[in-house]
Amino acid sequence: MIKKWQITVPGSTANLGPGFDSIGLSLSLYLHLTVSLSDKWEIIHVSEGLPKEFEIEDHLIYQIAHETAARFNKELPPCKIEMTSELPFARGLGSSASAIVAGIELANIVCGLNLSKQDKCNISSQIEGHPDNATASVLGGLTISSMDKDGIVDTIHVTDLDTSFVVFIPQVELKTSEARSVLPEHFERPYAVTASANANMLAAALIAKDYVRIGRYMEADKFHEPFRAQLIPDYYEIIQMAKEHGAYGTALSGAGPTMISMIPTSIGQRFVTKMEKLFPSHQVLLTKADQTGVTVSEASVLTQ
């Protein structure tokens, strides 16, 4: 009898405009791991978009699982992992955060750590360096978070957003480090006050589920999008065309280069069809907020 676990982690978008390094939203695009204990380490990438050749020791999930086990003075047993992913790498859809959350959950189940959701939010956010994508992948839904100097995360969790999302995924990658390199080190006080007010209004509108205001403030960022726009294919055109065809608002997904529009659910497929015609160099996907966050299911398989 071999025990297997299925770990499912949603991808995520971050910021939604001015919610810089603080607001995260889980999406119904997933990373799946099938895990079983083994006599040696083996990680098999099933999805076509994942690399086929790599060193186990360099794999992010392996590294995070070992780091998590070590935090609690546990030794991680060797595992066989089959991995599929709907999250393209370096596109701003939380692929690294989902892998981090998956690695923490792997250590949690095979080492019997009994981590709470708060523990998972703290550890994943500490590793990521900010709590936006990580908390969304752990909890599901929308998260508005801060992390103190000790790495403790405080989160307001919003669920049941009555809206859909469309992501525009270009064919180019953009590393977060490159996207951060174009940001200014300092803002003048009047500029910072306006930027902060826009972020506050976005957060308040999200909690109130005021979709018209959410859309307005998604497009009112001053912290990062004005500086990253030059790196993003069709940035201004996507914002304009999405608005003209019914989107509440459009913003960068995380650091980009993917962009994300919030739209009324009723126009979903019609909106996607139009955007596909306007932006044929992008993969345009209709998605919704995932409401569950990371999940684990268990099964036992009979062997001969």
UniProtKB/TrEMBL annotation:
GHMP kinase N-terminal domain spans which residues? 60-141
The question of whether Nucleotide-binding is a record keyword is answered with yes
What are the residue boundaries of the GHMP kinase C-terminal domain, all occurrences included? 203-275
Binding sites annotated in the UniProt record for ATP:
88-98
For the keyword Nucleotide-binding, the answer is yes
Under which main EC class is this enzyme filed?
transferase
Its EC number is: 2.7.1.39
Q: Which GO terms of the cellular component aspect does the record hold? A: cytoplasm
Query: What keywords is this UniProt entry annotated with?
Result: Amino-acid biosynthesis, ATP-binding, Cytoplasm, Kinase, Nucleotide-binding, Threonine biosynthesis, Transferase
Q: Under which pathway is this protein filed? A: Amino-acid biosynthesis; L-threonine biosynthesis; L-threonine from L-aspartate: step 4/5
What does the record give as the function of this protein? Catalyzes the ATP-dependent phosphorylation of L-homoserine to L-homoserine phosphate.
Similarity comment: family membership: Belongs to the GHMP kinase family. Homoserine kinase subfamily.
Protein name stated in the entry: Homoserine kinase
